[in-house]
Each structure stands twice: as structure tokens, then as C-alpha cells.
Specification:
4-stranded mixed β-sheet, 6% helix, elongated
């Protein structure tokens, strides 16, 4: 019995030793416990690369190339010129003028599921070492979240696009002072039916467009956050009903609550353009839609203070 226990102990020890031993594959390349180490005999992940700072800076940690194609590669490297510091960098290069130097692609297997997760997600954060679940991550402050810039040797950087910690966007500047700031350029709207949309204090939305004399004219539209196409997302109310729906000629606006006074209605097309508006003079008002083209429209009901009571999708046959 003692011999069996001793034999089992020796076999177990030999198996553990064999499995955990470090195998030298080649010079400076090691395998340990199924993990590959390059520059280290103690890999801490499936593939660990430890590089000596033999170049001082701009160290190429990983370089991937196709043997038959020159001057094209992707590199993982240190991008700082200061010793003992590290700035991770992905560097792509192509030898073909009609191809991008570096492409980042995202893919999803199913579309149309109304998922709010981005296909490509960039998440800046500050890590204090406690980890995600222990509250160790925080929003960066006084740092810019995203930047696109060009660089020319001997000249410096040219700032093209910037998003700072407050969500301010800068085009042509790295220090945007508003939600959108543009320097050294114009805003060009080529579609003369589109323009700027602003909300008035009473909650109404207005689109400003130019006429042929360069005058800025505003027309009332449905606010972008209000005009939706799904019935279940529309603002419903048991105080107002609109019928019949669909309809070919007329619909009735029925006010169920007799205490509601001085109501107003507005009719909008699918582009948010207001086609008709007026006062609701009685609790069962008839609205003529016979002149409208067949399609979908939105009827919005407001109280005397401008608050939206209901928005209803109506189909014109």
C-alpha cells in the first residue's frame, strides 16, 4: 500500500513538473503551461511579448507583413519619444494609393433589433486599479476623448476633428467651446428644403430655410424626437381619440375630457413638415384630409399652454 501511494505521488509530481515546465522553442521564445512567451519565460496570457527597449523609443512590438508585398504592414508599437514611458499605437501602412493605411471594421450578425449598442464602441475611462466591478472606472476629466489629426514633419499637427470630455465637437480646432465649433471653414447645406431646427420656449419646433433672396424663414415642424413611425412609441392619451383610421376623406377629433379647452391641432407629413393647423372648436371636430395624398400623417394635439396631449399616426387611403 505504501509503495502504491509513493508511486502515485512520484507520478503526480512528474506530471505537474512536466506540464508546468518551461520549454525553449527557439532563442527568446518559450512555452509554459500552454502559453507562448516571446522575450519572457513566464507568459501571463495566451501570448505574451516582452520587448527590451533597444531602440530607446518607437519600439515595434509586433510587425505583421505579407512576404510578397513590400511597404505594407500593421504594427503594434510604442509611440512616445520619452524614455521609460509608453503610448500604445496601431500603425498601418499600404503600398497602394487607392487603399486605406488602416481600416477598423465592426460586424453584427443580425440587424434591425433596435439594440442601442454601437457596432464600433470607443470607451475612454480612468482606471484607478480597483477594477470594473469595484467602482474602479471613472469618466476622464480635462482630457479629450477622441481626436483626428494630420501631422507634417517640421510643421506640426493639423487638427481635423475633436470630441472633448463634455461632448463638445470641434472641426478644425482641438478646443471646442460649444457643442459644435467650426474654424477655418463653412457649413454648406446643399438641400434647399433642409436647414436648422430650433425649439421655441413653448416647446414648438421650427425649421429655418433660405428663400431666393437670402432671407431666413422659419416654418413650424414636428420636433424630431416626437415624429416616430411606430404606433406604440407615439404619445397616446385616453382624453383624445381620432377616427376612423385609416380614412379616405375625413377624420374626427374627439375630446373625451370636457374640461380641456382651447385645444389646437397640427397635421404633419412624414418629413415633419406642417401641412395644416387650427383650433379645436368643439369636442367632436371634423377634419377634412381629402386633399392629402395617400400615405401616413401625424396629427398632434396641444393644450392651450402648448403641451402635447397626444400624437396619432393616421393613414390616408
Amino acid at each position: 500500500m505504501k509503495k502504491s501511494i509513493l508511486s502515485l505521488t512520484i507520478i503526480t509530481f512528474m506530471w505537474i513538473t512536466a506540464y508546468s515546465q518551461i520549454d525553449t522553442i527557439s532563442t527568446n521564445i518559450y512555452q509554459k503551461d500552454g502559453k507562448l512567451g516571446i522575450g519572457t519565460s513566464n507568459p501571463i496570457s495566451n501570448v505574451s511579448i516582452l520587448s527590451d527597449d533597444i531602440f530607446g523609443f518607437y519600439e515595434k512590438l509586433l510587425d505583421l507583413r505579407i512576404n510578397s508585398i513590400s511597404d505594407s504592414y500593421i504594427q503594434f508599437r510604442n509611440n512616445t519619444s520619452t524614455n521609460n514611458r509608453f503610448e500604445p499605437c496601431i500603425h498601418g501602412s499600404t503600398n497602394f494609393s487607392e487603399r486605406s493605411g488602416l481600416v477598423i471594421m465592426g460586424n453584427i450578425l443580425e440587424d434591425g433589433d433596435n439594440n442601442d449598442n454601437a457596432i464600433i464602441n470607443i470607451t475612454p475611462f480612468v482606471d484607478n486599479g480597483l477594477g470594473w466591478e469595484n467602482g474602479g472606472y471613472d469618466y476622464p476629466t480635462n482630457r479629450h476623448y477622441f481626436r483626428i489629426r494630420g501631422h507634417k514633419s517640421g510643421v506640426g499637427d493639423k487638427y481635423l476633428f475633436e470630441i472633448d470630455q463634455d461632448g463638445n465637437i470641434g472641426i478644425g480646432t482641438k478646443t471646442p467651446n460649444a457643442k459644435l465649433e467650426i474654424t477655418d471653414g463653412d457649413i454648406y447645406l446643399s438641400d434647399n428644403e433642409k436647414g436648422i431646427i430650433m425649439k421655441s420656449p413653448d416647446g414648438q419646433c421650427w425649421r429655418g430655410t433660405l428663400d431666393n433672396f437670402g432671407n431666413l424663414n422659419f416654418t413650424q415642424i414636428t420636433c424630431p424626437e416626437v415624429f416616430v413611425t411606430k404606433t406604440e412609441e407615439l404619445k397616446s392619451s385616453n382624453q383624445v381619440s381620432i377616427f376612423p383610421n385609416p380614412s379616405e376623406n375625413n377624420v374626427r377629433i374627439n375630446i373625451e375630457n370636457s374640461e380641456l379647452k382651447k385645444m389646437k391641432y397640427s397635421v404633419f407629413d412624414v418629413n415633419g413638415k406642417m401641412l395644416e393647423h387650427g383650433k379645436i372648436k368643439n369636442n367632436n371636430q371634423l377634419l377634412d384630409i381629402s386633399s392629402f395624398d395617400s400615405g401616413m400623417y401625424l396629427i398632434k394635439i396641444n393644450d392651450k399652454k402648448g403641451n402635447i396631449i397626444s400624437t396619432t399616426k393616421v393613414i390616408k387611403k
